[in-house]
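Students often ask what a holo structure prediction actually looks like on paper. The answer is less mysterious than it sounds. You provide the chain, you provide the ligand, and the output is a string of discrete structure tokens encoding the 3D arrangement of the protein together with zinc ion.
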Amino acid sequence: MTQTRPARGFAAESPTTPLASFSFARRVPGPRDVQIEILFCGVCHSDLHQVRDEWAGTTFPIVPGHEILGRVTAVGAEVTRFKRGEIAAVGCMVDSCRTCPECREGLEQLCQNTITFTYNSPDPILGGMTYGGYSDSVVVDQDFVLHVSEALDPAGAAPLLCAGITTYSPLRHWEVGPGQRVGVVGLGGLGHMAVKFAHAFGAEVALFTTTPGKASDAKRLGADEVILSRDPRELARHAGRFDFILDTVAAPHDLDAYLKLLKRDGTLCLVGVPDKPHPSPSAFALIGRRRSLAGSMIGGIRETQEMLDFCAAKQIVSDVEVIPIQQINAAYERMLRSDVRYRFVIDLTSLTG
Ligand code: NAP
Ligand code: ZN
Ligand code: ZN
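The corresponding structure tokens follow.
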């Protein structure tokens, strides 16, 4: 039987109960495992969707959190890539099948067999479900642990593990760069990282926002123009101008309004995952200019490391508001009101403090 040690975190016991203190067990590190004392964990809108069972797949109790950054406290005998005392990070996945074509290509997030997500996934080692980063520690196979430069602010680096890679990956896949005009829809956790990356890749960047008060921040983060998306006439003025639009919105909305802004052969890529479907796009919005509607999910481990190294070289981190874990339920309510500048990050020392 796998040996365990006690751990503490915050969990929700049902879709309608607030997150509260929770005790559980973590495995003692096996030969290939890295044990991490968690310092910071970002708060992703996916945490909120799953805590409230909006995707209808949550097993309770749930300990969310997949933007994990901490310090290595122990490693197994066969671990070669991490040492005690180093900063290390864990994102949305802690294992995959490792044998399917996608895993072999380093696209573990698209694994066609079994992905073990960091939380709310069946735990193949301990049984029960995996528990995430709203907790004091985590134990993960070294192949799913990332290196983070000590030169980056650790609280600001934590959100790179989901908001960072989820926006970096599609911008790279669709080869966004100089000479292109790129739109980002929504200035939240994902959106503000998309603006930073698209700008760093040399594209001309437009932010579409429902919150006029975010305009000056958007410019500071790297947007060349800000377009208010609540007014359909304002959107229509930009028809046919964009090569690529990344849509990070967490609620259903009219996709045609954005498809019509694409040039010939342009792509609208969805990364937001609302609880209910978007109204269907009209074929007319696609066919006349051979436009594409696409989607993207996080990114593979190799690309996540590439993104973290890119951020270290360019000094890119997330703009964060650090909170003690006791404020998590209030933070969720603010996230729902689009009132976060631009990612909440939990300081896990508050669990014991
Ligand atoms: P977030 O911080 O809440 O940001 C979402 C932003 O969307 C808001 O700040 C707001 O920006 C805009 N927005 C919200 N409600 C809107 C509405 N009704 N109409 C138009 N705009 C609205 O959330 P996040 O953490 O960035 O996550 C965004 C979505 O991506 C979530 O659905 C999450 O589950 C999903 N996600 C997907 C992946 C993936 O792999 N594909 C990974 C992580 C997260 P403005 O105030 O600027 O309008
Ligand atoms: Zn996430
Ligand atoms: Zn696989």
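Residues 96-97, 100, 102-103, 111-113 surround zinc ion (ligand 3) (CB under 6 Å).
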